[in-house]
Amino acid sequence: MTGDKLVYDGWLKVYKRDVNGRTYDILKNYDAVSAFITNEFDDVLMVKQFRAAIMDETLEIPAGCLDIAGESPEDCLIREIKEETNLKIDKINLKKIISYKPTLGFSTSVLHLYHAKIKKSDLISNKVNDEDVNEVLWVDKNTFIEYIKNGKISDGKTIISYLYLRCMKAGL
């Protein structure tokens, strides 16, 4: 293996890496955090936002990148939840689900998933002052499952969080 060669230096960084005569493209991007937030009725808090990569609007759980040096995943998540939903979540309400590498075939990033339970009334408005988020909404459990089946929810972190929590609840 030889040293990585920087070939693109933007918000994301792309490197060429030679390993045993083969060249690989490596994406070095920020680690990230997300929260699967539910209420007393088991509704799921979702954000609706436009994603330029797929040129479509998505339904996802709140998330963000660890792009402030020295910031812990929990502090980053609290900041991102506030930015995307106007909710103030205390660190004590965040329960770690799992950390995983969502794109390990070409990226170094780690995604830290958390769960938080709040009251439905804690969400005062579905309008936020965030350039990425168009709307914040509660999705009931049955609709959430239907949205996964019909592809309206296709975001990996959202689906993995749901399935992980469902398995834990079932004792698996």
From TrEMBL:
<dbReference type="InterPro" id="IPR015797">
    <property type="entry name" value="NUDIX_hydrolase-like_dom_sf"/>
</dbReference>
<protein>
    <submittedName>
        <fullName>Nudix (MutT) family hydrolase</fullName>
    </submittedName>
</protein>
<keyword id="KW-0378">Hydrolase</keyword>
<feature type="domain" description="Nudix hydrolase">
    <location>
        <begin position="28"/>
        <end position="161"/>
    </location>
</feature>
<dbReference type="InterPro" id="IPR000086">
    <property type="entry name" value="NUDIX_hydrolase_dom"/>
</dbReference>
<dbReference type="GO" id="GO:0019693">
    <property type="term" value="P:ribose phosphate metabolic process"/>
</dbReference>
<dbReference type="GO" id="GO:0006753">
    <property type="term" value="P:nucleoside phosphate metabolic process"/>
</dbReference>
<dbReference type="Pfam" id="PF00293">
    <property type="entry name" value="NUDIX"/>
</dbReference>
<dbReference type="GO" id="GO:0016787">
    <property type="term" value="F:hydrolase activity"/>
</dbReference>
